[in-house]
Amino acid sequence: MKAVRRPPPGMVQEHEFEAQPGLPEALPSTERIVWQGAPDWKRLARRAFHLRKLMVYFAGVLAVRAAFLAADGAPAGEVLRSLAMLAPLALAALGMLAAIAWFSARTTVYTITTRRVVMRIGIVLTLTFNIPLRRIAAADLRADDDGIGDIPLTLADDESIAWVHLWPHCRPLRFARPQPMLRSVPGAADVARRLGEVWAAETGRSATPAPTAADTGATLPAGEPVLAR
Question: What is the pTM of this model?
């Protein structure tokens, strides 16, 4: 069994106290916040927790159940009673999942400073991932028509954070080299632009500018590069 890799020392902190929202300690005088935000919980529920797909699944299960009962000659009253017994269970499961997505978004704070990207995540146990800009090799942007999108970060080759520590704030299906991700953030193109600017200033390397909503009509292609290796 492959061992779960711990985040590099100093990159993650467990804490109960915050010097300021989203940050476990006060920033030095030479560092400032350029953006701070959180996921849109409805988009997080749909994309990370697949709430819409599960709604379709449960609706299909109920429809199949009703079809089988009707085919066996069950009266309409019996069909309705059977559905009335199953529907609350499905609604309860969907409601619990939506609540988890809401709490996940509510307890998450993403912060971009002039020196780092900070991800404060966790519903019960609060973790803060402190990712220096110099340890970010690349970033991508994927935004929907309404401007809400994801910004996955590719860490330097010698850095790694386990997928289980990041989920759902990581790029899907990237298990070998998990990528931390600012997930379902409103105004993703503007956030990506700010990230590119501070990354270029901190590393001295050029960043590929992220298109703005005005440039693209708020429609961005999947995988639009923000930072080049």
Answer: 0.80
